[in-house]
Amino acid sequence: MNPTIELLKSHRSIRKFTDQPVSRELLEELVSAGQAAATSSHVQAYSIIHVKKPDNREAIAELAGGQRYVATCGAFLVFCADMKRPTEAAERTGARVVRGMTEQLLVASVDTALMAQNMAVAAESEGLGICYIGGIRNNPQQISDLLGLPEHVYPVFGMCLGYPAHDPDVKPRLPVEAILKEDSYQDDSELVAVFDDAMHAYYQSRRGGPKDSNWSQNLTPLFDTKLRPHMRDFLVKRGFEMK
User: Fold this and answer.
1) In whole angstroms, what is the distance from residue 34 CA to residue 26 CA?
2) Residues 6 or more apart in contact with residue 139 via CB below 8 angstroms
3) I need a labelling partner for 167 at 20 to 30 A (CA). Which of 12, 112, 124, 150 fits?
């Protein structure tokens, strides 16, 4: 493997961090690396809120489901899908801007994710650890209010950044054969069964403590209830009407 592929395949979520801060200079370099990611039509439909105030970090940690590492990591960022900037820019040229289209929501969300993943890889190349915080969407309106997010901007996820204070195992992924399909969609249930066995073995032997589960069992709470049913109404109120 070349060093880039080796780095990508060594990713772990880091949830314990040292007290060493992330310098502003390094943070700006990471953001610049993030901006180099592909972006639909060069729209660059994202903004990042660097949350520095300890009280706000504590509040977000609780709003995101009691994830304490939000408050203790070296730097905490909230990645926002931002259609305010590009639509207003187009409007200033005299364009009759149509807002609230579903495609705008998709473009902004995809742009944000691509940018963030570039940042994550850049951070890991500098010896930092990262952890995405999807729990931001547990209480998106309260977090939007806390961060002063305007209409046409919504918080997609957070990211903890910092120097690792633990060394978790790399979690197995589905086999490539289940993901890479030739010419058409093929059933992969047999491959999933094999992967469940691999995940069960991983959970039994991992350094963080044994767990009697597998991949399919871990999916149950995500799909046997309505996950974050507030999100559609929240997005519509933000101006993402999904027309």
Assistant:
1) 12
2) 63, 64
3) 112
Q: Sign (positive/negative) of CA torsion 131, 137, 143, 144?
A: positive
Close Cβ partners of 4 (under 8 Å, ≥ 6 residues apart): none
- Domain extent, residue 108, equals 3-168
Domain count for the chain? 2
Exposure string for 127-153, b = 16+ CB within 10 A, e = fewer = ebbbbbbebbbbbbbebbebbebeebb
pLDDT of residue 43: 98
Instruction: Give the rounded distance of the alpha carbon of 228 from its chain centre.
Output: 16
Q: Choose one of 119, 153, 168: the last residue of a domain.
A: 168
- 129 Cβ contact list (under 8 Å, min separation 6): 12, 13, 14, 17, 123, 160, 161, 162, 163, 164
Query: Are 162 and 173 part of one and the same domain?
Result: no
In a domain, 240, yes or no: no
**Residue 200 and residue 47: Cα distance in Å, rounded?**
39
Tens-place pLDDT, residues 148-194? 999 999 999 999 999 999 999 999 999 999 999 999 999 999 999 99
Asked if residue 177 and residue 161 are part of one domain, the reply reads: no
Note whether 31 and 117 are same-domain residues.
Answer: yes
Place of tokens 């970090």: 57
- Cα(126)–Cα(163) distance, rounded to whole angstroms? 10
